[in-house]
Write a structure and sequence with these properties.
Number of helices: 9
Helix content: 40-55%
Structural class: mainly alpha
CATH architecture of the largest domain: Orthogonal Bundle
Number of domains: 2
Low-confidence stretches: 1-9
Number of strands: 4
Strand content: 5-15%
Strand order of the largest sheet: 1-2
Distance between the termini: 66 Å
Radius of gyration: 19 Å
Mean pLDDT: 80
Length: about 160
């Protein structure tokens, strides 16, 4: 498999794979990878002229982790998205120094909102726009154990 490798101005080497190459590499279908993207779990770069999806090691790692959560831990995409919305970011990303992050000090605020408000870098220092926590932020979290309505109580013979 030919892997396009580019050298950045800083001298770092970056690889970019097309979706078909990634599908073959991670043993998933192209359709499944697009589903992960649609659900906000991965955001590949897009080619400037072709708009073609280009995946680097970060995106490939997220695809593999999502696959592992589904196939080894029994989660669904909806379950993964719920975890992203409920769990603190320092746990999701296994932060090595959470106490120095503004998100740790204010755990009920979204890390990306704190980054915007305080203009302080979170310890992840990553781009929020490609972070699954940020990309799934619009999902409305429903209570896990809502109160039973009077009608439901009646139907169950609890009144």
């Amino acid at each position: 498999m030919d892997i396009p490798i580019f050298q950045t101005s800083a001298g770092a080497v970056k690889m970019h794979l097309k979706i078909g190459q990634v599908a073959q590499l991670v043993s998933l279908s192209i359709k499944r990878i697009r589903e992960y993207e649609k659900e906000g779990l991965v955001k590949p770069l897009r080619g400037k002229t072709s708009n073609q999806r280009m995946y680097g090691s970060l995106e490939i790692g997220r695809i593999l982790q999502t696959k592992k959560l589904i196939h080894e831990r029994g989660l669904t995409l909806a379950g993964i998205k719920m975890l992203l919305n409920l769990a603190p970011c320092w746990i999701i990303f296994d932060c090595k120094d959470p106490k120095s992050c503004p998100s740790y000090k204010n755990p009920h605020a979204c890390c990306f909102e704190l980054k915007e408000k305080t203009s302080k870098e979170n310890t992840c220092a990553g781009d929020c726009k490609i972070c699954p926590v940020y990309m799934t932020r619009a999902d409305k979290i429903q209570p896990l154990f809502p109160e039973i309505s009077e009608k439901e109580k009646s139907n169950l013979g609890l009144t």
